[in-house]
Design a protein that fits this description.
The protein is mainly β. It contains no helices and 10 strands.
């Protein structure tokens, strides 16, 4: 899919750490933007079979959007969060 969403991002609250994982399962390089609260936080060129796991320190906002900006790559997208000693991972949600 080329447009996936998460409700919220938090790298500010005490004990909280959030990051996004984007994996490229296609045979071509994927061009991907990650936006938080409508602001582009980063653009990534992900090679075939590669992945990125960016952190955005000091960010607490939403929604989070992962957008393919070129081609039609096969992306695996999740959001990972640790809070103190707990861990949570959510798959991206595609809205139609």
């Amino acid at each position: 899919t080329s447009n996936q969403w998460f409700a919220w991002y938090d790298n500010v609250s005490v004990g909280m750490k959030t990051w996004v994982l984007v994996g490229n399962e296609s045979q071509d390089t994927a061009e991907v933007d990650i936006r938080i609260g409508g602001q582009t936080m980063g653009h990534y060129s992900i090679p075939a079979g590669g992945r990125v796991t960016p952190l955005f320190p000091g960010q607490m906002n939403g929604p989070v959007q992962v957008v393919s900006t070129a081609g039609s790559p096969q992306l695996v997208v999740s959001q990972r969060t640790t809070f103190n000693n707990s861990f949570d991972e959510l798959p991206g949600m595609q809205l139609t």
